[in-house]
Write a structure and sequence with these properties.
Layout (H helix, E strand, L loop, with lengths): L4 H6 L4 H18 L2 H6 L3 H10 L14
Helix pairs in contact: 2-4
């Protein structure tokens, strides 16, 4: 995965978390064939990473509960 270097340096969270979030977002974009991919001539992962770093899309970690 390639993240914008400037954004990655400024990022204060977990690299693992943002990597997982970007891969899941990229999967969502690919599955719905989002027109932003064609409009921006971006790779899906690059678009997903940019959306996360610019807070256009946010993620959260849900804790599993024992049943």
């Amino acid at each position: 995965m390639i993240f914008p270097l400037e954004d990655l340096v400024k990022f204060k969270g977990s690299i693992y978390e943002i990597t997982v979030a970007a891969s899941r977002r990229a999967y969502q974009l690919a599955m719905v064939k989002d027109p932003l991919i064609e409009e921006n001539d971006d790779k899906v992962v690059s678009l997903a990473a940019r959306q996360l770093f610019t807070n256009e899309v946010q993620y959260r970690i849900e804790q599993k509960t024992e049943q």
